[in-house]
Amino acid sequence: MRRRDRQIKDVNKITAVLDACRTASVAMIDGDMPYVIPLSYGYEMEENSLILYFHCAREGRKIEVLKRNNKVCFTVFCEGQPLFAETPCQSGYYFSSVVGSGTVEFIENSAEKRHALRRMFAHQSGKEIEFTDAQADSVCVFRILSEDYTGKQKQKP
Question: How far apart are CA 98 and CA 46, in angstroms?
Fold first, then answer.
């Protein structure tokens, strides 16, 4: 990371960024071209690993691409207030982000899918919601397991 003064190393501060944001952009490789898509997520930490959970339709381009190559990178980004300076080169935004890479694992087990969906919807809504097997089995659920992630933040003084 070039701007070490903005790097977030503390896991508690990284989880605070993950708590504040709602969308992750997931980038994958479709043949010889990159493909990126924004997705709602939920997450949990296990020791030094970050697990991001997602759900989507059970078919489509994203699923096909991920089945061919499960290596991905992601960005979770919370845009803050704009920073306007006297010169454009000093202007920008206050922001917080988490960036990383990992591998996608499709979740097939109904109990694991229900767990992932609970984590997602608790993150998105702040409510604990129970899902039935039928609900869980009606969607595709996958996770990104990442041990290679970092946070970055430009805070307001």
Answer: 16
